[in-house]
Amino acid sequence: MDLNSERPSDNVVHRSTTTGKVDVAADVVGTEAQQYDAAIERRVIRRIDLFVIPFLWIGYGFVYYDKAILGGASIFGLITALDLRVVVDPTTTPPKTSTQRLSWASSLFYFGMLAGVIPLTYAFQRLHLSRTIGACVVIWGLTCMATALVTTHQGLYVQRFFLGFLESMLPTAFMVIVSSFYTQKEQTWRQCLWYSATGGWTVIGAGLNYGFASINSGNLQRWQYLYIMAGALTVLYGLLFFLFPQTPNTAFFLHGQEKTIALERLRRSQMGVRCNTIKGSQIKEALTDPKVYLIALMMGLAYTVNGAVSAFGPLIVSTFGYSPLTAILWQMPLGGVCFVTILLCGYLSLIIPNIRLIMIIFNCLPVMAGCAMIWKSSWTHHAATPLAGYTLIGFFAPVTSLIVSMGMVNVAGNTKKSAMASATFFMYCVGNIVGPFWIKTEQVAQHYPMLWKGILGSYSVLVLVAAILYIMLRRENQRRDATGLDQQEGEKHAFEDLTDKENPWFRYAY
User: Fold this and answer.
1) What would you give as a GO molecular function for this chain, any one (predicted)?
2) Structure pTM?
3) Nearest-angstrom CA–CA distance, 98 and 272
């Protein structure tokens, strides 16, 4: 498969078709590379790390916790209160029931994300970044709190759809923000840092859910308190987002020369910082770029696990002979595996070049082993084997975090980066939609065979796609290296908002 349908000339820069609409950094640092002190650069990186990464980590934690609440709420009375479990065959003993309504409640969240990802992604590119995201987060928090007012499963469907619509902005925004503050080499580690919130907040969320389980007073049910708390914290976070800088040169935590260096050091990556103009040519290029489709497909395949685990995890663990409260606590080891492996793989990508796709392949193997252990083991009271397999599934987290990084470090041009983020997140939603419907509660005696077959098949295809992408990107880099273009000449074009195909100095990371 050919990486570029239209390869750039070896000696000619293919400029953006929209003359004059360049990256915002061009007005600050110009076209000529400037020398700067390495000690000051280290200080700049440290200050960006101390502000940007914790802020994104907390924000993505709220995104993840909002989704995961459904799993905890389902064993705190939500299923009964909103009639999410229905009897499908009253003649059996006990009567056969179905939780398809719970599956729909989980999946409609991602249908909302699908509806919101494209318009909201381009809204934060075209409009003021911090104000647009901040306003969206505040409304999302209020919507989350409103879940406590829902009295029917139809009302939950509507609420989940709009919650997903509003939350769709944050993951894509965070991907683009990191690509605007860090060099290509630094990005995977930083993307993994904020993405590790999926594991960290699995642990934190399990602790919060367990704490709320002890509430026995008040007029509300325990699941209602969960949504009110999560929504209130989200509103506060949204208000703080209004202070977030649009670009490094507007960051309040950088001073004087530091702002210029924060931009100048990004020149060598040939990825740009930010351009507010939406360029049709870059959208067209994204639509014809094979790697956009392959990376997005990888994300969809990887996230079939999460769609099932986030909504049904505690219920699945409870079938291993554990009480509902203990099942909540058993989410902590899963979260711990997610957290540690994301950080480990992110750090390895920082010190070992072009290891991302290799790590994706190797992290798929424990996920597949875990699924097989759950499916084929005996589900006796407090069985250890399926519980160990459930914990191994946590290796899906570094797979998805590395895929996020692959999308962001391998495209250039602000509009194309937004398109890549949208495509990746679109397939993220598809994977999360599909997963819950593989769980058939009437198949519990057979250990949910459709679920484990679906995940094993998805991850087998994922390994194959990762291997194909590795070959494609490596060959294209070798072809570009053979042209022998002058690196100093390439630095002059770093902030012209060129795409990776338009810019022959761009190199892919794999």
Assistant:
1) transmembrane transporter activity
2) 0.79
3) 51
